[in-house]
Amino acid sequence: MAKDISPNKLNQRDRRRMENIRDRLRSQNVGEDEATRLAIEQVVEESHSGKGGGGHAAGEPQKHVQHGGATRTGTRSGESKRKGTT
User: Fold this and answer.
1) Which of 38, 52, 60, 76 has the greatest number of CB atoms lying within 10 Å of its CB?
2) Largest CA distance in the chain
3) DSSP string, 43-70
């Protein structure tokens, strides 16, 4: 997957993350090319920067939150029944 993505195509935030991951891998005695490849794959997988469209792209509708009690009607727990009985 990362074979077609170069570090130049990453945004600045992802590029910094990729460089940090690459440096960490290099300190663990991983080769330069392999460390770069693994770092790019990890950044792309985590940030989805390889995909276009952003948040709610066409074809993926936004999910709405349903709050409990929004459709409740009437009085609270039989309050009107108790008013007449004293």
Assistant:
1) 38
2) 86
3) HHHHH-TTS-S-TT-TTSPPPPPPPTTT
Quote the DSSP letter at residue 5. Answer: -
Give per-10-residue mean pLDDT for the chain (86 aa). 70 92 95 93 76 54 61 61 58
What pLDDT, on the 0 to 100 scale, is given for residue 61?
Answer: 60
Cβ–Cβ < 8 Å for 47, 18: no
What percent of the chain is helix, strand and coil (3-state, nearest 5)?
50, 0, 50
CB 2 within 8 A of CB 44: yes
Rounded to 5 degrees, what angle do the CA atoms 42, 47, 53 make?
135
Token pair 């409990």 is at which residue?
68
Residue 64 pLDDT: 63
pLDDT at position 33, please? 92
Residues contacting residue 16 through CB under 8 Å, at least 6 positions apart: none
